[in-house]
Design a protein that fits this description.
By secondary structure, the protein is mainly beta. The chain has one helix and eleven strands.
Length: 240
């Protein structure tokens, strides 16, 4: 079972616990501002692609996916407590993903009959740099429970924002031959997220936590699907 599944199972178990476990009030107070530093890992999911061209009765189709290495993520957050059940946050974050591979198949057909089909895998050298800004609403309807001398608070929510990204491909190779590409694409797209997490404190001002966030980016173009990112972070929060 991977880290994301373990974390989500833990959240579900916490949410299904008896209600009297969460009888304590939230440690944050109405009207409080807070700030946090967040460090973690970001996983850019495989991006599928598919496109076709037709001429003089012949159709050539390409389909496959591109993969990326996981990346470290860093971000800073400023938040405000509306009441004991609702918070709002704005987060600015950065992550840099290295390209891994491109896998696909090229097929030529006439009248529904395949003339030729070629498949393979290429190594890709390059990187995707991302700068994101997200406004998120968080909910803490279960309150807090005493734990290990402090309090533990589950939270969940969602939000919207922007993603400014730059995709650079330096070269591709099949293991024997390398082709220089030196291509670059830049764009800014809308993003959406769902968030779940746990927060722990032993003082009135300092909190630590862990969060999982799934992000969708409206980045699909030229036959490529939208990008999706899974982000798991550790958070250190200070309440003013």
């Amino acid at each position: 079972m991977n880290l994301k599944k373990i974390f989500l199972v833990g959240l579900v178990c916490a949410f299904l616990a008896p209600t009297n476990v969460f009888a304590g009030s939230a440690q944050f107070e109405d009207g409080d501002f807070y700030a946090s530093a967040n460090v973690g890992v970001a996983i850019l999911n495989d991006i599928d692609f598919g496109t076709s061209l037709s001429s003089q009765g012949v159709t050539v189709s390409a389909a496959g996916s591109v993969t990326y290495d996981s990346a470290a993520s860093i971000s800073g957050t400023v938040g405000y407590i509306i009441n004991e059940w609702v918070r709002t946050e704005f987060e600015l974050g950065y992550a840099e993903f290295d390209h891994d591979k491109a896998k696909g198949t090229l097929t030529a057909t006439v009248g529904g009959t395949n003339l030729a089909s070629v498949g393979g895998e290429l190594n890709v050298k390059g990187e995707v740099k991302t700068l994101s800004g997200q406004a998120t609403a968080l909910f803490t309807p279960f309150g807090s429970t005493a734990f290990a001398g402090g309090s533990l608070t589950p939270l969940f929510g969602g939000g919207i924002g922007f993603l400014d990204w730059e995709d650079t491909i330096d070269s591709i190779d099949d293991g024997t031959t390398t082709l220089a590409v030196n291509g670059k694409v830049e764009e800014t797209d809308a993003i959406y997220n769902i968030t779940a997490g746990l927060e722990y404190n032993q003082s009135q001002n300092l909190f630590v936590g862990i969060r999982y966030r799934h992000i969708w980016a409206d980045s699909g173009q030229n036959g490529f699907e939208d990008a999706e990112v899974d982000n798991i972070t550790g958070n250190l929060t200070y309440r003013f």
